[in-house]
């Protein structure tokens, strides 16, 4: 960070003022010796690179001003920067609507093994979502939120990352866990909150977390994971690890203060973090036109000094390439990258929502059919001879069977015992919590009929 | 701000304490033998009489260095070194950063500026920009950042330039910091320390005179401690950094220039323990942070009037050290709480409830609590003085309770 002060000895007024302010700012004598090093150098980052030319522009016709951040040219015209550009930022895609490779497209080549795993996982995710959703409708699960329509974002981005990259999800990214090896049984365990759940049954369904797979437990609050991700990236940078932090959020999440602060921080700290926005058009019932007035998310990156790209989120190959490239940039150049993935939330926001109340069923249908991420990718892998109808039906029936079995087992598994209500609040339960547990147990003893039968004491 | 010589100094004052004239106190029911006290600090592991065993069964911090006994100040003047409270905090922080490379500091102006109260002075030069991080102005963001970094193995110390600013970080502190260890099933720990100056200062204005301990005390999953002397400031800072739980360390704007001699050797203070400042017989006065000094000033007056107050600096605001407090209540049967929080919903309010619930049978009089009024702190110096509890009020309250 320290740059040498390359000004000429004939100091300009500007530099004199700067030095004087520094001395004033630090006050004591012991600090003046440092003036030539750190305090000035911290200003150097934001100073014009060619300071030697400062003294030459003092006449009235000066067209350039030195200002923290670099030279600023003057203009006598009163010109406002338009609130939007004439054309929207183009969207990177590699497969067309029918899944055919676009000619002259740039993309990162995917091996057969990886492509087939990507597609299989997308199918698995789709089936898992459908079955869990139905289970909730049947009353077997209390709550669920699907990822339908966003399978490509989930799986393709996960495929482009390495297992050491730490993930900070919002709540619509179980595909990343799936890719990394979270089993259907483990998903079911969390949804049923049984004793095999990593989270010990404390959170509601879809709030997965796995230390082993570097996937941080979902915290329901919107966009709070963005600053967390910046901190994790900072930690990785300090340890010089070959890994980055990756965080996901929706178009709605970008309105939260944490989004803006996190992007700003990441840029200033030069933290290797990928900000992946799933712009799926809806934040519960709020369309993007009521969420922001900018051209989506991609243009916001520049405001914070962050390199950004807009990708077709339903094109698995494009997602893979974009995330792969971004990851390399983030780690080698130590910078954050913003990726806006355009997609559509085909399902409802969650099982507590009926989206036909605020959008047309036709719109949902169109995106599900014409822009389906699975069918597009399937066309491409089939064109390479890597997939067939037979493998498709085999996979689907196998996964469906596995899912139903996982559901059945999870439903039957015991819940965590009562002690887990009070443990892990701290590393060791303090006196007041031990006392409260004692009181609960006493109450249960005197009113056993009011206590749920499936929670062991 | 005049520097107050504290701690060991109090011991010498007490050695001139005269046994109370029994005629003056016939109304007080004395239930145990009176004795002269030679030392007043709780970290000494002696037990006086029946009830002053301070060590209790709660788990001590793992990996803790042996809690050294506070040196007998009156005798050996050779060991120990004198410093101001903010320097003690800095020393504790620096020692922990030396000891563990994962400890880092994040906050506004903590780096080369050295912190607005100079607690992080010199650290950026010694440890570099990465470990002493200057952040842009967004409390929620850098608190969130620290939480994310803690989940990946760092041990950040977050500095709020003023505790009041941490209201902006409430979301991260409550929803992420306090909860994630629990909701993740114990998979992720968040060993952060959140610290900063708070309390009513000298004409800092309403927004900069907040008592955040009131607002944070409900959050499950965090611990709260308040330091009041250079000795416990350094000890609590070190203990907080070593703790696996998120800890909020409350400092007070007016206490940074307190001077005291502290031991040279490594020591920590137990996070869950209260500090016995002055053992006594007639009444238990519970206090913390700056109010400790108002109480001790009132204690001088009270002693001259023939009262024998027991003063406890509760130090641990969440959870309360009910063991020490309980033993004291069982001995004196009267409780006065002196705090700087506002009347409604402050630490005093919770402490009153806890004492009533747990020690109701031992009380001879209702628990009395002296707090600040439920008003934003005025800027005018005279008005500001009257929003905080003054020694005169404490004396009156004790006299009232001991009738």
Automatic annotation (TrEMBL), chain A:
CDD domains: TPP_E1_PDC_ADC_BCADC. InterPro entries: Alpha-ketoacid_DH_E1_comp (IPR050771), DH_E1 (IPR001017), THDP-binding (IPR029061). Keywords: Oxidoreductase. It holds the Pfam family E1_dh. Residues 122-418 form the Dehydrogenase E1 component domain. This is 2-oxoisovalerate dehydrogenase subunit alpha 2, mitochondrial. The lineage of its organism: Eukaryota, Viridiplantae, Streptophyta, Embryophyta, Tracheophyta.
UniProtKB/TrEMBL annotation, chain B:
PANTHER family: PYRUVATE DEHYDROGENASE E1 COMPONENT BETA SUBUNIT, PYRUVATE DEHYDROGENASE E1 COMPONENT SUBUNIT BETA. This is pyruvate dehydrogenase (acetyl-transferring). Its cofactor is thiamine diphosphate. It holds the Pfam family Transketolase_C. InterPro entries: THDP-binding, Transketo_C/PFOR_II, Transketolase-like_Pyr-bd, Transketolase_C. SMART domains: Transket_pyr (SM00861). It catalyses: N(6)-[(R)-lipoyl]-L-lysyl-[protein] + pyruvate + H(+) = N(6)-[(R)-S(8)-acetyldihydrolipoyl]-L-lysyl-[protein] + CO2. The pyruvate dehydrogenase complex catalyzes the overall conversion of pyruvate to acetyl-CoA and CO(2). It contains multiple copies of three enzymatic components: pyruvate dehydrogenase (E1), dihydrolipoamide acetyltransferase (E2) and lipoamide dehydrogenase (E3). The keyword Oxidoreductase applies. CDD domains: TPP_PYR_E1-PDHc-beta_like. The keyword rRNA-binding does not apply. It comes from Camelina sativa (False flax). Its EC number is 1.2.4.1. Residues 83-258 form the Transketolase-like pyrimidine-binding domain. Keywords: Oxidoreductase, Pyruvate, Thiamine pyrophosphate. The lineage of its organism: Eukaryota, Viridiplantae, Streptophyta, Embryophyta, Tracheophyta.
